[in-house]
């Protein structure tokens, strides 16, 4: 009996001493000082936890299409910023400002999205971020 009590106390002690399970991953994979501007067509907007994803088809000067994955906050944070699940629909034409991945793959962190009607979707409530170096 004493052994099981000590084992239970040990497990609880280890759990309390472990790093918090709710800790968040780093944004180190994104370029901190670089913002690129993309114009494209929404393929899909996944309004999911822990992060939402916006998939945008971007066409270059030669007509080659590239699918970009733009990482955003989860639904609760987006909702607080006024961005609802139906804010972006497949086929919408948008301009995306994103902090690209350091490794060059076509993905990044959502800075701002501007819809074709001029609506600006800022995932962080408050003033629109100051201009950052583009491309």
What class do helices, strands and sheet pairing give?
A: alpha+beta
- Strands of the largest sheet, in order across it? 1-2-3-5-4
Average pLDDT figure: 83
Order of helices and strands: HEEEHEEE
- Count of alpha and pi helical runs: 2
Counting structural domains, the number is 1
For the record, give the distance between the C-alpha atoms at the N and C termini, rounded to a whole number. Answer: 66 Å
Which range does the strand content fall in? 25-35%
CATH architecture: Beta Barrel
Helix content: 10-25%
Label the overall shape: globular
Instruction: Identify the CATH class.
Output: Mainly Beta
Please summarize the sheet with the most strands. 5 strands, mixed, barrel
The radius of gyration is: 20 Å
Strand elements, count: 6
Which consecutive residue ranges, at least 5 long each, have pLDDT under 50? Answer: 6-23
The CATH topology annotation reads as OB fold (Dihydrolipoamide Acetyltransferase, E2P)
């Amino acid at each position: 009996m004493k052994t099981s009590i000590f084992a239970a106390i040990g497990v609880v002690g280890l759990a309390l001493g472990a790093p918090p399970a709710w800790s968040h991953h780093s944004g180190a994979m994104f370029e901190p000082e670089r913002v690129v501007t993309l114009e494209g067509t929404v393929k899909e907007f996944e309004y999911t936890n822990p992060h939402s994803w916006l998939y945008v088809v971007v066409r270059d000067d030669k007509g080659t299409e590239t699918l970009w994955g733009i990482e955003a906050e989860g639904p609760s944070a987006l909702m607080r910023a006024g961005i609802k699940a139906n804010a972006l629909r497949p086929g919408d034409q948008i301009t995306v400002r994103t902090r690209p991945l350091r490794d060059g793959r076509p993905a990044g962190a959502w800075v701002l999205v501007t819809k074709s009607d001029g609506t600006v979707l800022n995932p962080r409530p408050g003033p629109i971020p100051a201009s950052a170096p583009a491309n």
